[in-house]
Amino acid sequence: MASAPPHYTPEALKFLRGLKRNNDREWFNARKAIYEREIKAPTQAIVAAINEEMLRFAPENIQPPQKATFRIYRDIRFSPNKKPYKTHQGAWWARTGLEKTSGGGFYFHIAPDEVTIAAGVYMPEREQLLAIRRHIEANHAEMRSLLNAKKLKSLMNEFDGNKLTRPPKGFLPESPAADLILNRQWGFSTKLPADAATKATLVKEIVKRFEAAAPLVAFLNSPLSSKPRKPLF
User: Fold this and answer.
1) Is the pTM of this model over 0.70?
2) What are all long-range contacts of 99-104, with beta carbons under 8 Å and residues at least 24 apart?
């Protein structure tokens, strides 16, 4: 009999709720074994299972589980918030070759009160942002088609875009892509109830959203990658 796809147990949510209340090293270190067993190990197993599915629709974004999985430790060096731990566990599938930058990719995290699933470009570097805007302007009809894909819109919600109030330097207000170029990020996200993390359908729920968003992610990465992408039209 086949084993169920990887997912979390209720103990994982219990741990994250406890961490949210007790975000300090003493509490965490006393329960580090629980974190390793209930959070870190399942996350890497989930990433591996999603990688297998992504071979079909986003092979260029497959990442080793240990690289895709974020550390639970916060970087507090320059932050006024000195709490040492994140209260969620996330994973990020960057495009191969863009791992150290901020190209388009796929993301999910488990938190005490939700599961978040997202895909797109969230914090592109300055040069990337310019390249994406130029690409969108030259291919705005294709971009609109991707953003209006019925399946994608039925599964996720479009980013608000963190929009500028006026066109960025080098772009005209009368550009046919002006509304899209105002954005500083492009993509889709959704939130599921926390208990979705404890069900055997978790990988399926993530994968169907990643697959729906894959054409948009590929479009956004096209000007950032050395490999040419075949346009839809």
Assistant:
1) yes
2) 99/63, 99/67, 101/125, 101/128, 101/224, 102/128, 103/128, 103/220, 103/221, 103/224, 103/225, 104/187, 104/216, 104/217, 104/218, 104/220, 104/221, 104/224
pLDDT digit string (tens) for 12-28?
Answer: 999 999 999 999 999 99
Residue 52: Cβ within 10 Å count: 11
Closest CA to 144 of 154, 130, 158: 158
Q: Is 203:45 a contact under the CB 8 Å cutoff?
A: no
117, 97 Cβ separation under 8 angstroms = no
For the CA atoms of 81, 86, 88, 90, the dihedral, rounded to the nearest 10 degrees, stands at 120
Rounded to a whole number of angstroms, the CA Rg of the chain reads: 19
At 150-175, the pLDDT tens digits run 999 999 999 999 999 999 999 999 99
CA atoms within 13 A on the CB side of 94: 18
Query: What domains are defined for the chain?
Result: 10-224 (3.30.930)
